[in-house]
Each structure stands twice: as C-alpha cells, then as structure tokens.
Amino acid sequence: MTFQLDISVFRPDRPGIRKVLGDLEAEIMEEIWTHPGEQGTTVRDIFEVLYDRRRLAYTTVMSTMSRLAKKQLLRVEKQDHTYVYYPNMTQQEFVSLFVGRIVEDLLINFTGETLSAFGKQEQIGSVEQARHKLDEITRQRHKEEQ
C-alpha cells in the first residue's frame, strides 16, 4: 500500500513526529501505536487515556481521529454502532515516510545546498547516496509527467 503523505508543515524545533503533526494528532497516533495494529482502537479508548492528561472533549478526540483518517494515517471500519480505527503504518514506517518526503523536497528545491550538507557529514558515501536518490526522484517525476 502506497501513501501520499501530505506534509505541509515542518517544525524543526519540535520533537519527534510533532515536527509534522500537531500535538494532539501526535499524541493520538503515539497512543494508537501502543496497541497491536490488528486490534483497532475506538475514540472512547483514546479519549479515556487522554482525558486524564488534557481534559479534552470527546468530540475533539473524535474529530482529530477523523482528520488522521483523512490524512491516511488511520483507516476506519464501522463495527455495529462503533467506529474502530487502525493504523495504516507503524510509527517507524511513518517516520521513514516523512523523512524521505522531506529529503526529497530538499533535494528538489535546494539540490546544491543539500548535497553540500550531505558532503559535510562524516558518513562516507552520503553524497553519492544523495545523488543516487536525486537521480531516482528525477526519473520518477519524469515518468509521472509523461
């Protein structure tokens, strides 16, 4: 399953996944990822955990989980009269996806500067890997345009 992750905001000063998600979205996803993925989670499950910490309204949690489903981070299934949410990816898969998207954006928009920054890294081969990634991105974009 391929996901087009919409990253319209990147906050370098924020920790972890809060760099690309809001605080409540991140908190909900982190809680969902503590459960086995195939088990599913309800709004009530998340609300009860978060209420003690934040005193949120049930509808706030519900609308945020619905927004996460629209962003394709969650999928939702109706079971009887309850909506059950399942993560579409693990936390590590999410991190890899957004890091890849950010690196791709940097390579496309700031090619020279990004390659130069990779060149200053101590890891041998990072510049070659970045150039290879840029070539791969360029080929893919060219294919998509045709």
TrEMBL record:
InterPro entries: BlaI_family, WH-like_DNA-bd_sf, WH_DNA-bd_sf
Pfam families: Penicillinase_R
Keywords per UniProt: DNA-binding, Transcription, Transcription regulation
Superkingdom of origin: Bacteria
Transcription among keywords: yes
MF term (GO), any: DNA binding
Similarity section: Belongs to the BlaI transcriptional regulatory family.
Protein name: BlaI/MecI/CopY family transcriptional regulator
Organism: Reticulibacter mediterranei
Taxonomic lineage from the root: Bacteria, Bacillati, Chloroflexota, Ktedonobacteria, Ktedonobacterales
